Amino acid sequence: MMQQKQPQKINRLNPHLINQIAAGEVIERPAAILKELVENAIDAGALKIDIEVEDGGKAFIAVHDDGTGIEHSQITLAFERHATSKLPDEDLFAINTFGFRGEALPSIASISRVQLITRTYLCEHAWKINAEGGEFSDILPYQANAGTSIEIRDIFYATPARLKFLKNSLTELNHCKEMLSRLAMANQNVHFTFKADEKLIYDWKAGLLPERMSQVMGSSFVENTIPVLLERNGYRVEGLVSLPTYSRSQANDQYIYVNNRWVKDRNVAGILRVAYQDVLMNGRHPMAALFLTLDKREVDVNVHPAKTEVRFRDSQFIRSFLIQAVKRSLQGAQHAASPEMSRAIVNSFKTSSQLTPSFSSASNSFYHKPILKDTYPSARPTPIAAFVEPAYVASLNLPDEKMEANYPMGLAKAQIFETFIIAQTSDALLLVDQHAAHERIVYEELKTQYQEKGKLPSQSLMHPEFIELNEIDCEIFKNNQEIFKDIGFIIEVYSTQTLVVHSTPLTCHNQNLKSFIQDVLEDLKSLGEGLSATEIIWEKLASKACNNSIRAGRTLSIAEMNALLRQMESTPKSAQCNHGRPTFVKLDKKSLEKLFERT
User: Is the whole model's pTM more than 0.90, yes or no?
Assistant: First the structure.
């Protein structure tokens, strides 16, 4: 006889176990505790927050603030699950604060040893309570300033299995520093201090946004960035993005904030990739700090327990809005050169005191003799007018301010190595790569020609190509056929898993069509628009522009050099070639004077 299976019994979990489960979602590592406590301090209106950690936060975390404090009658309630002061109207879709789930303190108290000291501004003294593994002490009077101080010791001591998953102290400390950086950048009105193992690491005074960015990301970030600002239909984005010539090998320094909340948005990398399309070298990533402000009802922040993910009501508009904002800023900075590159140029030179003579034998001792006036050749130098155009000679007489106003890229002075143009503005020297500069000019002209036609021209295939895909990809294609049509494809849906390609863009000759289409569909799934398609199309145009540009090694006249400089001034993104390399470097007069120790 077959043994019958007994139904499983459903039990209620005890509150302590519930808190430990919640801790597993909210408290991944010490940095997560730091995030919750600092966000609570910011929500409490703190203007100064002092943070201390030991052993990367594994042994000790303390957050002291000068915020509003907690009333005596509310202290135990603060440690109960789903108790919060941050949803006064109980409206999950109108959230103005960071923490609102009411899970942080009870979760932390369930896995560690906690001491909370708090005092309101109306109370004569503070109150103290201790919690250990979910058990609480009596609330006792205490002497302390107004605000709240929370000390966390021995994280995960009550759940040792979780402790094993933590990294070494240095790694955990770096996570804490990164978390604090994210929070501090969006709260520049707050003074932050951070100590690690009794050593002061950060002391970030309150100030304006550029000052805080300089504190958090370094002064070179602000020097090598351009401002972003765009407002439309109640949406506003502002911040800073790096010049294309100031980039990183990883996308770590890309921050996006939604209503001052730092979020992980999987689309950020795609947004910046599109915005920096054809101005950044392959494998390089821009730096960015963007702050998006919108109606709180247009975004859902209640997506993830750690509140680091959001969902937009109109994500397609948000993507287009951010891409346009960054592109406009890059367009406006088309002649901007990275100061970092100028410093690199200065540092690459050796001063005269560092140079050693090329010849040191007695037979070449003339290197150590003074050069007398009569040792110069008797012939006089050929006048400039004898070998350059009269128009150029006339332009040399322009006042500095007029020259700069008329010619941002300056006037050509010479060509060296038949590759580089030396130009001069009123206060700087420019070294221009003639091939890279002309490549960008030709590329932008090709783009304009294609864009004016509304779509890219096609070429019919001699034999239609059948492409097998899965049903999901075929369905995505059917819903987005116009995208492929606009970039020059004529594709027919043959069956639930087969497409037939009849025509392709001219620039996709000999392209692996299946791979191309799958790349576009993958972007459509993840980003909602065919980014890869346009990228590959422009890559083909870039290759064509490269082949049609002035080559290195070609001798140019002064007139040709100046004509090239004038074209650069009227060409978008002319500071970089199609592959993201700089088209020119700039060395200001002060740097030259410093190089020759004239200052």
Answer: no
